[in-house]
Amino acid sequence: MTSDSQDIESATTAMSPVITDAPDSKTRRYDRQLRLWAASGQSALESSRILVLSGTATSTSILKNLVLPGIGHFTILDDAKVSNEDAGNNFFLEGPESIGKPRASEAVRLLRELNESVDGAAELSDISSAIAKGASYFADYSLVIAHNIPYSQLNQLSEILWSDVTLPHLIIVRSAGFLAEFSIQFHEHTIIESHPEMPPSLRLDKPFPALLEHARSLDFENMDVTDHGHIPYAVILVRAMDDWKAKNGGKAPTTTAERDAFKKSIYAMKKKSDEENFDEAVTQFRRAFVETKVPMDVADLFQDQGLTSLTPQSSPFFHLLAALREFCSRPPHTLPLSAALPDMKADTKNYVHLQKLYKTQSEKEKDEFKEILAQSGIGVAGVEMGMVDDFVKNCHGLRILRGKRWGALDANPTALASALLSSPREAATHLALSSVSVLLEQTPQKAITTEAVTAHVLNLLPKGTELPSEVEEALGEVHVPSHSHLDESADLTVSVRSPTADLPNTAAFLGGIVAQEAIKMITKQYVPVNGICAIDLIGCTTGIVRV
Amino acid sequence: MTTTSSTTLRTAHIKAILGNELHSRLPSTKILLVGAGGIGCELLKNVVLTGFGDVTLLDLDTIDLSNLNRQFLFRKKDVKQSKAFVAAKTANQFNPSVRINPIHANIKDPQFDVAWFRSFDIVLNALDNLDARRHVNRMCLAANIPLVESGTAGYLGQVQPILKDRTECFDCLPKPVPKSFPVCTIRSTPSQPIHCIVWAKSYLLPQLFGEDENGGNELDEAEKQGENEQEIATLRKEAQAFTLVRKALRNSQPSANGKMNGNSHASGSADAARLAFDKVFSSDIKNLLSMADMWAHRAPPTPLDFDKIADGSFVLPGATGSKAQSAQTNGKHVNGNGSQTSAPEASSSSSLKDQKELSLQESLVLFVSSTHRLAARLQAGEDTISFDKDDDDTLDFVTAASNLRSAAYGIAGKSRWEIKEMAGNIIPAIATTNAIVAGIIVLQALQVLKKEYSGLRNVHIQRKAEVPLSACSVGPPSKNCAVCRDTYAEFLCDPARVTLSQFINGILGEGDGDGTGERDVSVYEAGRILSDPDFDDNLERTLESLNVSRGKFLNIVDEDGEWGTISVAIGQLPPNHSHDEPAFILPSPLPLPPKIQKPTVIEPPSTPPRKRSADEVEVLNGRPAKRPRVNDAPEVNMASPSKKRRLEEDGLLILENPNEVVDDEPELIAID
Ligand SMILES: [Zn+2]
């Protein structure tokens, strides 16, 4: 595998030329992903610096999926030389030719070929020497990823990175056989663009004046049949409700019977039986009267500790959130209107008109929001304008995640026991991986047996805890043999000595899923896993152990 | 250390985990990997690393000059080679002991018949289009070979193992009408409308109105590095052609002025539209045509002629009964599916303009006018223009350009309304999801090979942070599936020497009532009906004359719905088959379709034996091979789902029916 080594990887993208080629234009190069995380996400990605501890097959798989979309820089810290096993399972080595060479250098060279705009470096030193340098060594990076590093080093590393909120987040990845887990250590993670599945409210129950006026202005009865079939359902509902209220003393329907009658009144507006826009209005009829409020998830954020302790030094996110709280405290007690109109049955003319109404109103409300912000402690100048726009546009999906230090769970027997009760399979996976990792370090020369691991698992739990069968199953998948099997087959020796060696498909899978979470953290978009994500590739399941 | 011992050590861990038996089988397990794109290459890497030793890799596409992939080309000498070949070569370098047989072809080509599929132990699908996925599903069922199926769209992905009679097949559950189109490629050889839309939106529009390419430096750089000179020359020429068009678009007065002044100023944007047209719809296509090997198994495209289209004298070759023609028909059929059918003729309303399919001439006019409008915007100071489905100018441009490209490739045109819908819902594929999916495919393949069927899972990769992956046990085949509930058989023959009646009588055999023997049946090929009890014109025609050839299926549907459908794959006679013997070999034993449980509901007596009116037969006689399906559809005998499916089986019809697009499901992914 010479310089063609990345052929296969490039060919991966050859299916999608837009990503690999046209290096002259970022937009073109990253076209595909831009549509998923937009320019703001892309620029965050491009300025990111990622440190990866260990040059395993899993590590290089993760990096491949970060280099392709275009991170700024990566460093692999690893002092190992390429072993036979590495050569067989790590695609980012040159097969047997790499054996005996420094693993990090080989991998960096091949990974860099995937994307010339990404900078990469190999650091051929021991993890403990990096740890010895302390926080300043890591401060340069925006994210640290550690795969299968020894338990005690992981402990030290996580402690260093936890010591200051400005230090990079840490993604801990562990795998053995078909089991794996990863978690992200962070103090606080705020997300503006969470890309929620629920679209923002159209606020049809509280139509803004221009919308109401528009709905009233249409002459439904005398309209041309074709035009009638192209009125967007939003307008139909506003009009239907306005008519209803006019006939019912200004009140919206409340009882089931009234609501049915309201629904029937929409049907009655049809001119032809096949008017799909009216069918759509009927399907959506609840939107006309269900009250639009601040979504619960967002309302909860108004109680967040970041607001109660707001200071001028707080991050812009919390100043924006404070302004939003103020905005929502005023009538009509909703979030600022979104300009994003979903598709609805309509012709272009009608749809674009409605879109304009929403856009105008949404601009107006954004201006109100900005006024509030201007009067607040931080002022408009304290926040980048693009961020204000993004914030208002995405305010229905705002999220604040708060994390714990890595290892917090293992230090808490009661929490572990309750995790084992609530999600036995995931907790069992975690316990097995944790115990194997500890034992590997304690007795590196010895075979790790089921008995030893089980004993260690029991040690982590409150006295007298009964292990569910999931633990035994998990140990089977890590492929830790029991004492009785130890001498049966010489083939087992290697796996016994190194139960954490990478399996190609586990590594490929982790490469995808961990890179995806890393991208979420870096771009601050989409909601990352919060807790320990436990993976069982025999059952093909993933689940979260809450920390 | 010897090679053997190092190999042993390298694979010891995998061996320990897979078990000796399975592990020792991997090198000789014959695996077919369909698709060398995003998922396919990940998959190939995993397959090789896992220790499989005999891989056939098939992909239709080339790493092509005419698409955007410049960086990739420059670094490699593999330009214009097939993806399959390049991928195979690389994987082989990683592990020379793996036998990788790359095939650059369409999986639907006739030589990939059931017998060919049967030569594999397992098939892995890494395809990005529904039509091909369904095809492979059916071939694997017919050959009784396990299949692991997959697909991705943005952050979403899916893996499904399929075993005949044991699990659901790809077609067991009706595929929801996709709101979004997972498309990861700009194809040099489009086969569906969506390919042309992606091309117009993501390639042509940015080429003309996007950021400047400034490709010259790279070309120089590549030249310095000694890359293939000829390729560079071609690329340079291509870059220059676009530079010329871009200049014309930006540097001159809007064409309207030009025309009004009767201005002879030759570089107006009118000419820019013409320049662009000639480049992409004429000379680029002519270049492609010059590569004869590309068109061995697929219809070559037709270069378009600006002037002839403008004056209405342009005729797509073979416009009668040709691919283009039937594609058009299919397109209309599609549009006619929903309640909007009645609308198109109805009126002059502007809203309906959107739903109308454009003629070639209308597409040209729209191409020129939208190019002018966009050019005027550039000249008025806009730096770059990118696609926005609510920006009429860009939507018009994409509509026109994609329809022109479709016409050149014999693909059904799309209305502006449909294109808006489709272009707005193209979901990019991303590396992370491909990696996840490819890992799972191999794991499922291993379960299949181990015959640990309890471990089979349908896996979905979803966007929920709580459960990134959801796996459910695979369900049994759906009782009503029109694909996997068919009884499969193989009919080896020389289609030139076998008549339809020989075929029917041969397959039905001599029996009496146990599922064999003469009975009233209809025979279908894909969406076409070839015969039924009231329609026997084709019976004495040869299969070849009915365009039934190797690799195709003939479906024998019981007219009274008493017996299951027999799905017969047409195969090739063995080379030593004597010319004196009948020109076919019957399957042995003959297929025995299951007796269909009659619904217990008592039906009104008028329903089941449906006979066609004389008028209808009249119409049919006019077009023996193709029955007007729209009329046929409502009276389909519902006891025979196969028949219904046959009627639906029109390639991409389900995919792109705009009428079904809106439902109450949440959006898959918010792109904007
Ligand atoms: Zn099925």
TrEMBL record, chain A:
<dbReference type="InterPro" id="IPR030667">
    <property type="entry name" value="APP-BP1"/>
</dbReference>
<comment type="similarity">
    <text>Belongs to the ubiquitin-activating E1 family. ULA1 subfamily.</text>
</comment>
<dbReference type="InterPro" id="IPR000594">
    <property type="entry name" value="ThiF_NAD_FAD-bd"/>
</dbReference>
<protein>
    <recommendedName>
        <fullName>NEDD8-activating enzyme E1 regulatory subunit</fullName>
    </recommendedName>
</protein>
<comment type="function">
    <text>Regulatory subunit of the dimeric UBA3-ULA1 E1 enzyme.</text>
</comment>
<feature type="region of interest" description="Disordered">
    <location>
        <begin position="1"/>
        <end position="25"/>
    </location>
</feature>
<dbReference type="InterPro" id="IPR045886">
    <property type="entry name" value="ThiF/MoeB/HesA"/>
</dbReference>
<comment type="pathway">
    <text>Protein modification; protein neddylation.</text>
</comment>
<dbReference type="InterPro" id="IPR035985">
    <property type="entry name" value="Ubiquitin-activating_enz"/>
</dbReference>
<dbReference type="GO" id="GO:0045116">
    <property type="term" value="P:protein neddylation"/>
</dbReference>
<dbReference type="GO" id="GO:0005737">
    <property type="term" value="C:cytoplasm"/>
</dbReference>
<dbReference type="GO" id="GO:0019781">
    <property type="term" value="F:NEDD8 activating enzyme activity"/>
</dbReference>
<dbReference type="Pfam" id="PF00899">
    <property type="entry name" value="ThiF"/>
</dbReference>
<feature type="compositionally biased region" description="Polar residues">
    <location>
        <begin position="1"/>
        <end position="15"/>
    </location>
</feature>
<feature type="domain" description="THIF-type NAD/FAD binding fold">
    <location>
        <begin position="30"/>
        <end position="145"/>
    </location>
</feature>
<keyword id="KW-0833">Ubl conjugation pathway</keyword>
From TrEMBL, chain B:
<feature type="binding site">
    <location>
        <begin position="35"/>
        <end position="40"/>
    </location>
    <ligand>
        <name>ATP</name>
    </ligand>
</feature>
<comment type="subunit">
    <text>Heterodimer.</text>
</comment>
<feature type="binding site">
    <location>
        <begin position="128"/>
        <end position="133"/>
    </location>
    <ligand>
        <name>ATP</name>
    </ligand>
</feature>
<keyword id="KW-0547">Nucleotide-binding</keyword>
<feature type="domain" description="THIF-type NAD/FAD binding fold">
    <location>
        <begin position="16"/>
        <end position="453"/>
    </location>
</feature>
<dbReference type="GO" id="GO:0031510">
    <property type="term" value="C:SUMO activating enzyme complex"/>
</dbReference>
<dbReference type="InterPro" id="IPR033127">
    <property type="entry name" value="UBQ-activ_enz_E1_Cys_AS"/>
</dbReference>
<keyword id="KW-0833">Ubl conjugation pathway</keyword>
<keyword id="KW-0862">Zinc</keyword>
<dbReference type="GO" id="GO:0005737">
    <property type="term" value="C:cytoplasm"/>
</dbReference>
<feature type="binding site">
    <location>
        <position position="169"/>
    </location>
    <ligand>
        <name>Zn(2+)</name>
    </ligand>
</feature>
<keyword id="KW-0479">Metal-binding</keyword>
<dbReference type="InterPro" id="IPR035985">
    <property type="entry name" value="Ubiquitin-activating_enz"/>
</dbReference>
<comment type="similarity">
    <text>Belongs to the ubiquitin-activating E1 family.</text>
</comment>
<feature type="compositionally biased region" description="Polar residues">
    <location>
        <begin position="322"/>
        <end position="346"/>
    </location>
</feature>
<dbReference type="InterPro" id="IPR030661">
    <property type="entry name" value="Uba2"/>
</dbReference>
<feature type="region of interest" description="Disordered">
    <location>
        <begin position="320"/>
        <end position="354"/>
    </location>
</feature>
<feature type="active site" description="Glycyl thioester intermediate">
    <location>
        <position position="184"/>
    </location>
</feature>
<feature type="binding site">
    <location>
        <begin position="67"/>
        <end position="70"/>
    </location>
    <ligand>
        <name>ATP</name>
    </ligand>
</feature>
<dbReference type="GO" id="GO:0019948">
    <property type="term" value="F:SUMO activating enzyme activity"/>
</dbReference>
<dbReference type="InterPro" id="IPR023318">
    <property type="entry name" value="Ub_act_enz_dom_a_sf"/>
</dbReference>
<protein>
    <recommendedName>
        <fullName>Ubiquitin-activating enzyme E1-like</fullName>
    </recommendedName>
</protein>
